[in-house]
Amino acid sequence: MTELYVGLMSGTSVDCIDAVLVEFSSQESASSSPALRTVAAIGHPITAETRDAILALCAPGPSELDRSGQLDRQLGSHFAEATLAVLREANVAPSEVRAIGSHGQTVRHRPPGTVSTPFTLQIGDPNTIAALTGITTVADFRRRDMALGGQGAPLMPAFHNAVFRTNQDRAVVNIGGMANITELAADGGVRGYDTGPGNALLDYWVKLHLDKPYDADGAWAASGSPHPELLNRLLSDQFFAAPPPKSTGREAFNPSWLERACSGLEVAPADVQATLAEVTAASIANGVHEFSAGGELLVCGGGARNKDLMNRLQRRLPTWSVAPTDQYGLDADWVEGAGFAWLARQTLLGLPGNCPEVTGAEKSTILGAIYPA
Fold first, then answer.
1. Which of 104, 158, 272, 289 could lock 122 by a disulfide, CB 3.0 to 4.6 Å apart?
2. 224 CB contacts (<8 Å, ≥6 apart)?
3. Domain count, the chain
4. What is the pLDDT of residues 211-257, one digit of tens each?
5. Which CATH number fits the domain that encloses residue 235?
6. Residue 168 is part of which domain span?
7. Backbone phi, then psi, for 9, in 5-degree steps?
C-alpha cells in the first residue's frame, strides 16, 4: 500500500514556498523506515510585497500583532495555493492525499539561552490551508519539542536519519537561509545543529549591490577574495564556538550583524560576498571536521546549486566526498519539503518526529497539531 502526502516549506531565504508531493510505502512498525519517492514538486512564488512583510516581522516593530495576524491568514492562503498547484502538476485530486505537513514561515525564533522564556513562532494558518484544500493539515511542529526543553530546531535530522543512513560516516548539510548539519555516525549515532548563516546574507548583499535575488552559481563571490580581517570578525561570533544543541536565525545573523563587522573597514563589495561565502563554508566545515576525519557529505537546499560554495566546501574538506543529495536519491531542492511530508506522516502514525540528542529535548515526542479537513 502507498499513501500520498504534501510537504510545505518556506525557509529563512523567503524566496518561495516549496510544495512537494511524496508517495510513501507502508510502514509496519516504528523501527522501520518507509520507502518514499517524490511524485511532483514546485517552488510556488512569493510576491515581493509578501516577502517584505515577512522580513519586516522578523525583527521587533510597531503593530506586530495586527501585522502578524493578517499575514498569518494571507500565508495560509498562499500555502493552500501551493498545495493545489503541485497537485495539478501531478494530476492528483485533493481527495487522494492523506495529509499536508506545513512548516509555516518562521518570523521569530528565540531558543533556550537567548531569552528568559524561549519561544518560536511560525505563521501560515493551518486552518486556512485545510479549509481551502479540503486536506487534513499537520502544522506547528516546533513548539512541542521546545515545551520539553529543546531548541525546537533543527527538525530535519530525524528525517535524514530515516532516509540517508548507511554503514559509514555521513553528514547531511542543508544550506538554506541558515545552514544546519546532521551527523550520521557509522555506529548508529545521530547529532545535528545549526551551523550559522547559509544563503540569507549572500542573497541580501547581492540584492543590495547588483539588484539580483541571488548570486547565481556563486559567480560574484568567486570573482572576489575573502577579506582576512572581516572573515576573522564574522567567525569570532560566539555562536560558532558554542556547543550543540544550538539553533539560530535572522535574529542573530542579519544585515545589522554584517554592518557592525564591516565597521571601519574598506572592503570591495565582491570581496564582502566572497567573505560571506567563506563564513558559510568554514562554519559548516568546522562542524564536519569535529564529527569525523572523512566520509560522505550530502548537501541539500539552495546552497547545493551554488558552485562556488560547493567548491569552497570541497577545498576545506579534502577527505570528504561533497555532493548534492540528488546523487543519493532525493533532489536537493526538495529534501526539506519531503521532510515535512514525512513529519506529518509520523504525527498521524503516532510516532516521534524529533531527535532529543539533536534539539536537547527531554525525550522523543510526537510533533505537530492536526487540523482535520
1. 104
2. 268, 269, 270, 271, 272, 273, 274, 275
3. 2
4. 999 999 999 999 999 999 999 999 999 999 999 999 999 999 999 99
5. 3.30.420.40
6. 156-328
7. -145, 130
